[in-house]
């Protein structure tokens, strides 16, 4: 009896200790039932797991609505292997649709974590909406992929798949115009943003074939308004983003424009003509630059004697029977059957206004059907001929001999061992992606009018359906190996203390910083033009940043992390880790005053408010600045990411240099206190 009492007492004490000890994070696990909403509070650092029991070869659809917290949902199969992660670029509000195709019968898991700073809390509601047999045809499987947007109450997308010169699938999902409930179809006209660039390059090659120019010509031969920087900028530099010119959108934003303003070609040319410096010497680096493609379109117009939209209509679109395609350089022009763009916030969908009146870098209007005709021209040329088609896939080469992945408005790469040629586009709420698999004579394009849509991810999921037997393993086609490639690979785990050692700021370029942070044992990287993005471990020191196709390697020196090595776009960048710095010790009043840019003809007033430094513009409002190192600050606006103040020989502040993601060191002079 005494021993029984002792055992009961011991068990009681163990339970008391377990339930009274503080937990590092909360991990919940419960069963999710179809059709039963689950509202919950999620704290950063916690993990909520939901078990769903599913038979083999089924399709399940879940909807999670974020109500003040940015949720990452990860699915796992019955063996505990990760299947996929879901995180739309919609921040803390709006839907996170989740789909799951089951391979075997068993318990699948949905794991929810918060992509937030430690301790942050917010609510969500999760519901299992649909369970049905997995589609037995590619067409039905694509329909299931787009379940979320297959409603007239939501913006959506148009999809077209082409194989061997024929469209084998086309369909529209969602609404082209929410105010009038107009459905999207394969004939709906979309603005496809930067996919436009390959058409601009193609036009230049057509003129070269006619003997009217050379891609090695100096841009100033055709557009003398471009300043003489003392170094030749060729058309070829412009076509590969290696010119060193500053990006037009960032320059305009710094100068006080909003991107939903009416922006014309002439305004862009005027701001380019005022530039006094380059980001770098032509051919030395790759940096994405829209300015170059506006200039290329103007070269086409001046050399051909026709407006750029007219040249492309006569020489490309009409011969290819792309009857619903045009370059749009007049924001007042009526385009029938067009889709309008939207974004979502906590109140629902809102209009995302686009008023561009310029073309070349962007502004191609087309349909999913017409874009297939463009893809077919690469397989069986009707326009341009084989010589131009071959040249379109030649990657750019930097002065030092490095080959970049960019080739005349297209990215050259591989997917599951297959060669791909692709490009995406994003303006306002429009999102688009075109990927070609040249060896398979296969292409997919997805055009959307919703800002949080991921057309690239959806394009590759569609490709997986059609090309699953073409994937390459160790240089052989999958069917030639005699083995089945695993569907997923178990996650690589890196020690928590090692991950902590990688955190901090790294100076990507003078005055431009990359921040590495850790949340829930996941490394994140953020930088100008790159929001907080997960880093996927490849080894204990190597990580992939998939949205920008970058491989990051952390380098140690005397046992401490000293720098990161970044391989991207065929090049390599070394970013040194900066010493810890306490911004609270900065005397921000030292930096106040009025600062003027002659190149932009605009001024910012630096003001101190409650110990914070603010860059104030009369039109676009305030930019909040945070100190990163002596005389250096980061801004909270994409076009005003870094400010480096300059001093005279007496240590007095005389100006600053402002950088964004695609503008380096734009000079501002202090003109008054």
Q: Which secondary-structure class do the elements indicate? A: alpha+beta
The 3D shape can be described as globular
CA-atom Rg in angstroms: 27 Å
State the distance separating the first and last CA atoms: 87 Å
CATH class of the largest domain: Alpha Beta
CATH architecture title of the largest domain: 3-Layer(aba) Sandwich
* Sheet with most strands: strand arrangement: 30-29-28-27-35-34-33-32-31
Strand content: 35-45%
Low-confidence stretches at least 5 residues in length (pLDDT < 50)?
1-25, 473-490
Count of individual helical segments = 13
CATH superfamily of the largest domain: DD-peptidase/beta-lactamase superfamily
Number of domains: 4
Q: Biggest sheet, in brief?
A: 9 strands, antiparallel
What is the residue-averaged pLDDT? 89
Query: What percent of residues adopt helix (DSSP H or I)?
Result: 10-25%
């Amino acid at each position: 009896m005494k021993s029984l009492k002792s055992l009961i007492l011991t068990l009681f004490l163990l339970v008391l200790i377990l339930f009274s000890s503080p937990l590092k994070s909360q991990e919940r696990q419960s069963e999710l039932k179809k059709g039963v909403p689950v509202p919950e509070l999620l704290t950063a650092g916690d993990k909520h797991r939901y078990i769903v029991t599913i038979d083999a070869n089924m399709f399940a659809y879940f909807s999670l609505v974020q109500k003040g917290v940015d949720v990452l949902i990860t699915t796992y199969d019955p063996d505990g292997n990760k299947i996929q992660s879901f995180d739309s670029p919609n921040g803390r509000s709006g839907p996170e649709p989740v789909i799951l195709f089951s391979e075997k019968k068993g318990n699948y898991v949905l794991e929810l974590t918060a992509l937030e700073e430690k301790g942050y809390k917010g609510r969500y509601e999760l519901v299992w909406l649909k369970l049905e047999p997995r589609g037995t045809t590619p067409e039905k499987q694509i329909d299931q992929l787009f379940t979320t947007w297959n409603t007239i109450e939501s913006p959506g997308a148009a999809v077209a798949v082409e194989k061997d010169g024929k469209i084998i699938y086309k369909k529209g999902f969602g609404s082209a115009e929410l105010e009038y409930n107009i459905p999207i179809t394969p004939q709906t006209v979309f603005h496809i943003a930067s996919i436009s660039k390959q058409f601009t390059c193609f036009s230049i090659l057509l003129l070269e074939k006619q003997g009217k120019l050379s891609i090695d010509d100096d841009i100033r031969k055709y557009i003398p308004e471009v300043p003489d920087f003392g170094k030749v900028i060729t058309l070829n530099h412009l076509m590969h983003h290696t010119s060193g010119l500053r990006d037009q959108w960032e320059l305009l934003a710094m100068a006080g424009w909003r991107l939903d303003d009416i922006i014309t070609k002439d305004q862009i040319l005027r701001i380019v003509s005022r530039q006094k410096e380059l980001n770098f010497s032509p051919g030395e680096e790759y940096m994405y630059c829209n300015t170059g493609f506006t200039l290329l379109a103007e070269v086409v117009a001046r050399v051909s004697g026709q407006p750029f939209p007219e040249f492309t209509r006569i020489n490309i679109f009409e011969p290819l029977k792309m009857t619903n395609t045009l370059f749009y350089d007049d924001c007042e022009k009526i385009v029938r059957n067009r889709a309008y763009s939207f974004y979502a916030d906590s109140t629902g969908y809102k209009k995302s206004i686009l008023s561009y009146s310029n073309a070349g870098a962007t502004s191609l209007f087309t349909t999913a059907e017409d874009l297939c005709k463009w893809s077919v021209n690469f397989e069986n040329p009707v326009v341009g001929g084989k010589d131009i088609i071959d040249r379109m896939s030649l990657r750019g080469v930097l002065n030092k001999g490095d080959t970049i992945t960019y080739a005349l408005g297209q990215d050259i790469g591989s997917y599951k061992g297959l060669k791909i040629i692709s490009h995406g586009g994003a303006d306002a709420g429009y999102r688009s992606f075109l990927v070609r698999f040249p060896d398979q004579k296969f292409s997919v394009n997805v055009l959307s009018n919703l800002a949080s849509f991921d057309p690239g991810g959806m394009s590759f999921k569609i490709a997986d359906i059609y090309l699953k037997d073409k994937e390459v393993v160790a240089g052989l086609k999958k069917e030639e190996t005699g083995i089945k490639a695993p569907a997923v690979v178990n996650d690589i785990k890196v020690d928590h203390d090692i991950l902590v050692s990688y955190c901090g700021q790294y100076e990507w370029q003078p005055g431009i910083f990359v921040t590495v942070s850790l949340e829930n044992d996941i490394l994140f990287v953020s930088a100008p033009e790159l929001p907080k993005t997960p880093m996927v471990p490849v080894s204990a020191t190597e990580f992939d940043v998939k949205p920008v196709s970058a491989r990051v390697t952390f380098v140690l020196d005397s046992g401490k992390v000293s720098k990161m090595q970044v391989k991207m776009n065929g090049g390599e960048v070394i970013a040194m880790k900066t010493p810890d710095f306490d911004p609270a010790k900065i005397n921000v009043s030292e930096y106040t005053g009025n600062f003027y840019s002659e190149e932009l003809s605009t001024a910012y007033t630096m003001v101190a408010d409650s110990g914070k430094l603010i860059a104030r513009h009369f039109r676009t409002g305030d930019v909040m600045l945070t100190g990163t190192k002596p005389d250096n600050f980061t801004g909270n606006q994409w076009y005003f990411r870094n400010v480096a103040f300059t001093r005279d020989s007496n240590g007095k502040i005389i100006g600053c240099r402002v950088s964004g993601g695609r503008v380096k060191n734009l000079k501002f002079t202090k003109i008054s206190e």
